[in-house]
Amino acid sequence: MTHPATRPRRTRQSDAWRRMVRETRLSPDALIYPLFAVPGRGVRHPVSSMPGVSQLSVDELVKDAKAVAATGVPAVLLFAAPAQKDARASAALDPKGLAAQALAAIKEACPSLLVWADVCLCGATDHGHCGHVLPGGAIDNDSSVETLAQVALNYVRAGADAVAPSDMMDGRVQAMRRLLDREGHAATPIVSYAAKYASSFYGPFREAAESAPAFGDRRSYQMDPANAREALREVLLDVEEGADLVMVKPAGPYLDVIRRVRDAVTVPVVAYQVSGEYSLIKAAAERGWINEQAAVLETLTGIQRAGADLIITYYAPEVARWLAGR
Ligand code: PBG
């Protein structure tokens, strides 16, 4: 049957109808909020390229974690930018290092808030790459994987509820799973940044995490933005290696990848609305060029509609408040 008998507008004519036939519903339950730890006390250092986001010392981080938990957002994702940076990523391996301190402090203050620890070497290395650098400048996969597994173990011992490897080395999920199991942490999930693209949208984040590479770029380990089939290969490998959740990152420019991944696996799919996606909306909103709340809710709805079960976003607490009508 076609028009005039068929009229899709019938179920669009009032808010009550639109609410009833809505296919995608955002909920704070699906959101994860990133936090950035820096050394010191009483430090609340705004990230200039991400209005509303600050680098926080551990004491301040605890305050924000409590505020986030109060909005109903169930999890945070922790990044650390330690002062000490060296070739071995010693600060990330240190049981008393910045990330370990922050994890312990957040868990003590908010035991029911889940804390995911981002696992990577870039914030703790002097060269800012996500793995160890060989003479000549290539990134050494297998030695990086060993270190990354040790970092994951360090963070889990400090209290992390999940580890999220964001380095894109081959085989790191398997190495982490084996080490965690051997050391008595078989119950700790791995959230794998499985399809992470070499994206220009990470620019603002690198200021927040102090993790810009000192030379070269990340294209020898992060994925080529042109590839979608390869994302399935990455995701299926990570699931086989033991990933409990898989991530697609960035989110907005990769909705097709999110959909294909959602259709290919049975584990939860996480999408990361990254710093550049956040800053674009912020910048346009500051100029009065876009309605911030409407734009944010539309992007997140699109990401969920594409197939994401969970979304990491710098807007998480604000969205939770908007959804609660506060
Ligand atoms: C580090 C890491 C990055 C992000 C998360 N973990 C940056 C990068 O790979 O250069 C990006 C997050 C964002 O842009 O919001 N491996």
List keywords for this structure.
326 residues, TIM Barrel, globular, single chain, 12 strands, two-stranded antiparallel ribbon, ten-stranded mixed beta sheet, alpha/beta, binds ligand PBG
What is the correct CATH architecture? Alpha-Beta Barrel
Which stretches are poorly predicted, pLDDT < 50 over at least 5 residues?
Answer: none
N-end to C-end Cα span: 44 Å
Structural class: alpha/beta
String of helices and strands: HEEEHEHHEEEHEHEHHEHEHHEH
As a whole number of angstroms, the C-alpha radius of gyration is: 20 Å
Helical content (DSSP H or I, runs of 4+): 40-55%
What does this structure look like?
The structure is a single chain. With 326 residues, this protein is of the alpha/beta class. It has one domain: TIM Barrel. The strands form 2 sheets. Strands 1, 2, 3, 4, 5, 8, 9, 10, 11 and 12 form a 10-stranded mixed sheet that branches. Helix 5 packs across helix 6 and helix 8 crosses helix 9. 47% of the residues are buried. The mean pLDDT is 97. The structure holds ligand PBG. The site of ligand PBG has 12 residues, from helix 7.
